[in-house]
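Hey, I was hoping to borrow your eyes for a little while. I've dropped the whole record in just underneath, so have a look:

——
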Amino acid sequence: METIKKINEFLSHPNHLTLLRVAAIPAIVVLLLFPNKFCTFLAAILFSAAAITDYLDGYYARRKGLVSSFGKMMDPLADKLLVSSSFIMLTSHGWIPAWIVCIIIGRELAITGLRNILAGKGKDISASALGKYKTGFQIAAIIPLLFHYPYFGVDLNIIGHVFLWGALIFTVWSGVDYFVRFRSLLKV
């Protein structure tokens, strides 16, 4: 009973959840090195669990008053690493177009750079509603794309591609929105 309590305490700390999300990335990559129905299924389940920790770490941080500088920096970085590595692995198998992944990862790097510049000026930019939609569409695309193979007659790959186009639209839209909103702070 004491062990379960310790596990629950560990899993309810936002920074621990962020670190678990980072730890899931190599496992997902390794599973995707073997693109068969079993490994892609496991990768999709692991990615889904990691994506849930993205919601939970923010929830616990606010609810328990555990917002930290580490969490503010690592949470978005963990998200970007998880999403980017999954997209890269999907591209390596030719399951999604590389140009879409380049745009998505390029936007993520650009916004991270923008956040760093603004942090240096004492400004903090939280995720906008568009940024949250972008993340939701990216996750909604990656999960069925990772499953890749049809299950019970349902072609999850097609569903993933529909969400991928939504993710691309929200990725570009939210990226432009961030730069437009904070352009006055970027003057040299």
About this structure: The helical segments are 2-11, 14-32, 37-63, 69-92, 98-120, 129-147, 156-181.
